[in-house]
Amino acid sequence: MKYTKEHQLLALIYILFMGFGYPLIRYISDIFNPINTNAIMFLSGGTLLLLVATIKFRHEIIKLKDNLQLFLKLIIIAFLTAGNMYCFIAGLNKTSALAGSIFGILSIPFSTIVAGILYLDEKKKLKELHFIFGSILALIGSFIFVFTGTYKISSNSDFLLGIIFLIGTIIIQAIQNLIVKDITKYLHSIVISSCSSILTSILFFTFSIFSGNINELITAPPNKIIIVLLTGIYSIFVGMFISFFIIQKQGVIILNILKLLIPPTTAIVSYFLLNEKIFLFQSFAIILILIGCIIALKQKKF
């Protein structure tokens, strides 16, 4: 597959938007209980995407009426998304924005190998020497970035619990990406994103009602709800639609490589918005990550 200028632009948008996304979610993570935060975010983001999908891709939505298997897969994605986002927001709330983006790196080796085993087009990427060399270089840079930065082990029980939540996102994301890879053969990514977002929102609202957390939303001031609603539109558009679209057009492995560029972007944004520190030695790691990703995404072998 040729890596076109359109693919490069999409990759750049994904990296920059995700860099802002982690601090935004970190900022709103303590406004409500994670269940309520997710319920609102997925409702707002999913509703907007569903509106677009209904107007532009109505024929794609009709496919769900005649294919129960596709609808069941969307339900599975919704459950995985619910688990992933609950762990993600709970983890960010107890750690930091940078820690959240860093733990995304740890899912890359596992999901890359599994995708290469299950899908022929992904397997071809794994066999390219420049891809292997660039990926290793980017991973090394990512871990240098981690261990020379603000990410420090803490004995605080809340921090350790946050780490456990973030580890949960690693496992869930790897499984989710494989199912999305399969369903994008039959449905447009915006239909997948919108339907799974609405279903995920229903799940979270159900959990909120049965757990009694819904009272928090009933008595909440409108301005707080609006902040979470707007963040949800942003996050669902970037975190689900764009990532699913990249999987559909470029594959799971390419998405994983792009994720390596998110921690440096997140660190820069967090420095200005959340006052999270950046150390000078991290600049070397950022350069290493950039070089590794450029090499990995090149089309011609050396």
TrEMBL record:
Cellular localization per UniProt: Cell membrane
Membrane protein topology class: Multi-pass membrane protein
Keywords: Cell membrane, Membrane, Transmembrane, Transmembrane helix
Chief subcellular location: membrane
Domain EamA: 9-144, 161-296
Superkingdom per UniProt: Bacteria
Transmembrane segment boundaries: 9-28, 40-58, 70-92, 98-120, 132-153, 159-179, 186-210, 225-246, 253-273, 279-297
GO CC terms in record: plasma membrane
Coiled coil: none
Protein name per its UniProtKB record: Carboxylate/amino acid/amine transporter
